[in-house]
Amino acid sequence: MKKLAVIAFGGNALLRGDQKGTISEQEQNARDTCKNLLELVRKDYNIVVTHGNGPQVGNILLQNIAGAKLYGIPEMPLDICGAYSQGLIGYIIEQQFRNILEAEGLDKDVITLVTQVLVDKDDPAFKNPTKPIGPFYTKEESDKIVAETKAVFAQDPRGRGWRKVVASPNPIVIGNRNTIESISRSGQIVIAVGGGGIPVFYKSPNFLEGIDAVIDKDLASALLATQIHADEFYILTDVPKVCINYHTPNEKQLDVITTTEARKYLEEKHFAEGSMAPKIRAAIKFAEEGNGQTIITEASQLQNPECGTKIIKG
Is 48 in the same domain as 189? Predict the structure, then answer.
């Protein structure tokens, strides 16, 4: 049976820090990343692609705010903005991947699925929202929004202003997971769980509703990989291998580590929150619950059989 791999695109797969975010920039970045996935396609892997949406959903929120102020267009809630971003990013990746496949003479469909992800409305994260989204405001502006909407704001640690913060609950069930697995195992390429998925909960039995939250993209991707019985889970980032003692004279690249070792390094604070730490937690989750291996690496390294840091159960 062909191997099934879930590949989580990092943020720089679409938009890099020194870029404005034009469509042409995002298309070129997506094309470059998808070219690197050809190695897995040539090895006859079945593939599911996931991706982040931070910059894009932030821009959508800004457009929302501007439209409301200038034209009185009703603002859309965060779950709807997440759905917008899944569609636009999926379209970019789907088109660029299709262009590359056709140039290589490879006949595969590329299908984007807008993906809902079930969360628990009683998740403790909802009592302590920490995930910053959207633009920066002054204290006075944020206080006014809080009074009008009961949103929660927090001061930026770097002193850039105040931002809305939302919960980041744990994902429980990936919507349409059986269809995602079926399509990918038939040999087609699926793009799903964009931005960690649209968080939804059961407002009442058999009645789903969106909720203001942001699910960690790598954690949701690990859950997807587990629930579709993937063999491998790739987390693409901007370094070829995970390091301990990062940016010190004792920096050391890691080739293969067990989940026990990975937890030890987490406890020793080798990995920064908001950077490598969430990726390591996602890697542990899949290695233990999915019984496969996680590979954390840079997209350009995929042609190397020994690429990345492998995290295995143990």
Answer: yes
pLDDT digits (tens, 9 = 90+) for 107-118: 999 999 999 999
Q: Residue 271: pLDDT above 90? A: yes
Same domain? 185 vs 81: yes
Q: How many CB atoms lie under 10 A from the CB of residue 23?
A: 9
For residues 207 and 68, state if they share a domain.
yes
Same structural domain for residues 197 and 98? yes
What per-residue confidence (pLDDT) applies to 118? 98
Three-state DSSP state, 53: coil
DSSP string, 128-146: S--EEEEEEE-HHHHHHHH
Per the structure, the complete domain to which residue 161 belongs is given by 129-166
Sign of the four-CA dihedral 165, 171, 174, 175: negative
Same domain, 289 and 143: no
Which secondary-structure segment (H or E) carries 190?
A: strand 189-191
**Token output for 187:** 């040999």
Q: Catalytic residue numbers?
A: 11-12, 131, 217, 279
CB atoms within 10 A of CB 146: 14
Neighbours of 255 (CB within 10 A): 11
Quote the CA–CA distance of 119 and 216 in Å, as a whole number: 12
DSSP state, residue 27: H
Q: Is 174 helix (H, G, I), strand (E, B) or coil?
A: strand
Q: Return the CATH number at 41.
A: 3.40.1160.10
Q: How many domains does the chain have?
A: 2
Instruction: Judge if 178 and 264 occupy the same domain.
Output: yes
| Cα three-residue angle 90-232-314, rounded to 5 degrees | 140
Instruction: Look up residue 213 and give its DSSP letter.
Output: B
CB 310 within 8 A of CB 294: yes
Pairing of strands 189-191, 46-51: parallel
Rounded Cα gap, residues 23 and 252, in angstroms: 37
Q: Tell me: do 228 and 114 sit in the same domain.
A: yes
pTM score, whole prediction: 0.93
